[in-house]
């Protein structure tokens, strides 16, 4: 049985491994920033964490480009329609660059009020504001110039991955994550080498991390753009009809991203209302959760791409069997980061210069996180299956239901109502993951996604 399942998911795992590494390296920019900024204290951690929340929220809103475009590319690739693949790729790149410029401009102009909205300072008189919006806005003013490059890199990497070339984005990510790491150390701490009497120049602190991220992001986007330009044999502006196809398939994913990240904003506001220590602990745990979820996230993307190709080739029954095997692969794969999280909880938290109370609360939250990650694995793989089959609306509906009926009331009741603080609120967040996995499994068993997918496949092949 296990050999049979491995044979089914083997091609998916082979495709997912480079995507997993790419996701780890892409997120490593934020992790390195968080780790080094952790040496600057709670204020810097809170500032960087709130900006990271804004970036995540915004990128998920534009996930329709990468998700919808990738599924279309994989389906048409399976149907051997290379001309359509190239047209969709051009359209994705143009749309990604335009959205990035718009988003970067918004962040630059509205930096302080956006951060103040997250910290709830916006609802207070200006003289009563905390220091976080002021510090975070300075960081965001610099990172805003990197936002177009970040979004463009994500879109181009998605094109490479969907066409089967998962190695090129990884190579570029490796190079510029090294650039980011060196830039962080030099600019944050002023090149304070071991054995020296002090830094060689004035340390820039939090702003240094922003400049390092900007340099690395611009370089990565430029190199990826040149590579995709050569691969496609030039550059075209794309077509509205192709963008319409991408939006039709991906818009529910953007709404789902709005729901999902909106829930994260709710939790951010909740933690900030509990206190600075609670939010600092939450920001640290959230960083580790993001890193430990990357492998399963890669499996989700690979599953969607591979099943899309099966559908394009008309192998519907094989797609159904492979989808279920992929869920088991996700759960088994998650056992690795869960084990690492349990064994390395103390060393990981020891990397941060935080108060004893923050440390203790974050430690217990890491244990709660470890128990919920298996459910989160299910919640990561199944959406890729449903979206590949065209059942994108059910994903956004389940996201909303699980937050509205479980996550929000449970975290508010346990964290504030029962006065359990960070730990109580985090238990509520974990209960949301359990409830969500139940809803996803029930939806998958209906096989609605398979029917939609078969119909979509026939329509797209005929239209080509």
Automatic annotation (TrEMBL):
* Membrane-spanning residues: 12-32, 52-73, 93-118, 138-160, 172-191, 203-229, 265-285, 325-349, 361-382, 403-429
Chief location category = membrane
**Keyword tags:** Antiport, Cell membrane, Ion transport, Membrane, Transmembrane, Transmembrane helix, Transport
Membrane topology reported for the UniProt record: Multi-pass membrane protein
For this UniProt entry, which residues form the secretion signal?
none
Query: Where found?
Result: Cell inner membrane
**InterPro entries linked:** MATE_fam (IPR002528), MATE_MdtK (IPR050222), MdtK-like (IPR048279)
Identify the GO cellular component terms for this protein.
plasma membrane
MF terms from GO for this chain are: antiporter activity; xenobiotic transmembrane transporter activity
Record GO biological process: monoatomic ion transport
Q: What is this protein called?
A: Multidrug resistance protein NorM
Per the UniProt record, the source organism is Vibrio bivalvicida
